[in-house]
Amino acid sequence: MPASLLVAGHDRIAGAARRVMARCDELARVSATSGAIERVYLSTEHARVNRLAAEWMREIGMTTRQDAAGNQLGRIGPPDAPALLLGSHLDTVPDAGRYDGIVGVLMALEVVRLLRPPGAEGSASDPALPFALEVIAFSDEEGTRFGKALLGSSAVAGTWDADWWALTDADGTTLGEAFREFGLDPGRIGEAARHPDELVGYLEAHIEQGPELDRRGESLAVVSSIASARRFQLVVEGEARHAGGTPYDLRRDALLGASEAALAVERICRAEHHIIGTVGQLEAYPGAVNIIPGEARLSLDLRGEFDGERDRVWGAISRDVDEIMGRRGLRWHAREIHSAPAVFCAPLLQDVVREGILSTLPSGADDPAVIFSRAGHDGMAIGAVTDVGMLFLRNPDGISHHPDEAVAAGDVARGIQALAEAVLHRAAEPV
Ligand code: GLV
Ligand code: MN
Ligand code: MN
Q1: What does the CA dihedral 72, 77, 83, 87 come to, rounded to 10 degrees?
Q2: What mean pLDDT, rounded, does the chain reach?
Q3: What number does CATH give the domain 228-340?
C-alpha cells in the first residue's frame, strides 16, 4: 500500500483544523446553562446543533436528514452504494468540555470536504470512492438526561429496547414524552436502524480522555478496543438512630459501611493494571445532621479491557463488601444498571487508521501507539451492526468531562489528515 494517498496541501489541512476549532467554539455556545456547556438529548439545544450540523453538511454537497432517533446525518456518493459512516456525538455531560464527541463530528465534515474532487467546493460532486460517505452526529452518547447511554447509536444499531420508553429525566418526563415534544414519533424508532449490508464500517475520531498520548509526546493513536463496562447501584442498610445518644457499639452506620466499600473499590482496582473503578455518587438517608445514616446508596462504574478481568474484579469487590458489611452489622445488595461487553476495533479498520497516522509522520517513523479506550463511545453500540475503527487525539493532561478539556489545532490537523488517509486506504480494499 502506498503510504500517502491524499492530495491536499498543508495549508488546506491547517485551514480545515482552524474551521473545526472555530466550530467547536460555536457549538459550545449552544448550551442549556449559561457560563457552562450542557446539551442533552431531545432538548432545544439538541435541535439547534442538529440544524447547524445540517447546514455545514449541505455546504459540502451532502444531502441531509434527521433520523427517527434525532441523529443528524449527511450523505454524499452513489445513492445505492453502501456507506462508510464517519462521526461521533454532539450531546454532552453537565459542565462539559467542548471537544468530547463534537470534534469527531466536525473532523468528519472536513474529511468529506478534503475528499471531494478539486474545484468541487460549493457543488455537489461526489468523492470518487467505491462507497458513499455518511457523516453521523449521534444525538445521545452520554446518557445525561435519561441515565441510559448510547441511545442514538443503539437506535442506528437496531438494538433499541422498548423498556427504555419508560425511562424518566429529572423532571419526570418519560423518554416517550420527550420524543413527542421534540417532534419525533416513538412508533417509528425502528426506521433509524441500519442493515449491515448498507454499511462498510464506522470510523470515529475522538479525544483520548486520558493522559497516555500526552505522556508519550504523540499526537494520534490507533484504538484497539473500547472498554467493557458494568455499572451498579449499591444499597447499604443499617439503622438510623440518635447521633448523640447512640454509643459506638450500638451503631450500624450505613454511610460508614458505604465509605469503606468505596475505599475497597479503589484498593482492589489500584492493584489491577487494567481495571478502573469509580464511585461517582454517594448518598446518605435520611440525610440529617443529627441522625446516624440508616441507609446509603452508592454507584459503581467498573471498566476494563476484557470482560473476564472486569467480572473477576467485581467478584473480588463483592467479597470485600460482604466482609465489610458483616463486620459492621450492615446488609447490602447491588442492582446492575448497565453492562456492555468490550468492543474490539476491526483489524482492517485498525490497519487503515495506522496507515493514516503514519502518513502524518516522517518516513521511517515508528508505528503509532495502539491503545484501548477506557471511555465509552458510540462504536460500542454500532459494533452490533458494522465494523468499528477509532482514532484518538492527544488530550492535554488527559482532562475530559470538565470545562478545561482541550485539544491542539495541530493535532486536529494531523487527525483530519490521518482520517482522510484512512478512508482512502479503506477504499483501496474490497468493499
Ligand atoms: C462516556 O463518556 C463515558 O465513557 O462514560
Ligand atoms: Mn463523554
Ligand atoms: Mn464522547
Answers
A1: -40
A2: 95
A3: 3.30.70.360
